[in-house]
Amino acid sequence: MKHYKYLLLDADGTFYDFPSCEKVAIKKLFDNYNIPLSDDNLALYHSANSELWDLFEKGKATCDDIRIKRFIPIMKKYSLEAKSQEAGLLYCKYLSENGILYPGARECLECLKQSYKLIMITNGLKEVQYGRFEASNTTHLYDKIVISEELGVQKPKKKFFTHTLDLINATESDCLIIGDSLTSDIQGGINSGIDTLYLHLNKEKQDGAYTYAAASYDEILDLLINTN
């Protein structure tokens, strides 16, 4: 395998268990407004949230849109629409307090840290991600944390990765992107000419133009540590 100096790491779905963090935060939020934690209500929230994040990746929605608008449908259902923005900000607070990692993620990061510079790259909201990195006691593992909201451009746009390379004084060939999203991480690598490692934890491998693929953290370490 080619030798890399920097690993550009995605957060959610790659090392951080966002669904578990989300479940805790949603329950606290719904309890706060006496909204039943039903499948229908969860589906209503997830639909609005997914639509906004898809628009964000395409550059058609902002971080503030996500913060403010994703709870409008569920709050409107319970005649609480006027509190949609309040709910969105409270949800971000609850999310920021949970930094749940996938089993084996911490050990993988600590092992990679011994051989590479680790650069966290995420489209997440800045207050949420910084809080979760602190809550999980992983901030110290990263040589740099790059959040799209602070750059003003998001993955998978080439400009996001160009800015990131400038921040760490690296070239495309120095870096390997590790992520679980074909549309954000892998497409970002394609757009910017950076090699990619597609991690498909607990899910079927999908076809794509990635450089490498792994189904587990052990496979990542086999590729990046044991073969170098």
TrEMBL record:
**What Pfam families does the database record attribute to this sequence?**
Hydrolase (PF00702)
User: What molecular function does GO assign, one term?
Assistant: 5'-nucleotidase activity
Q: Which Gene3D superfamilies match?
A: HAD superfamily/HAD-like, Putative phosphatase, domain 2
InterPro entries linked:
HAD-like_sf, HAD-SF_hydro_IA, HAD-SF_hydro_IA_YjjG/PynA, HAD_sf, PGP-like_dom2, Pyrimidine_5'-ntase_YjjG
- Protein name stated in the entry: Noncanonical pyrimidine nucleotidase, YjjG family
Q: What is the lineage of its organism?
A: Bacteria, Pseudomonadati, Spirochaetota, Spirochaetia, Spirochaetales
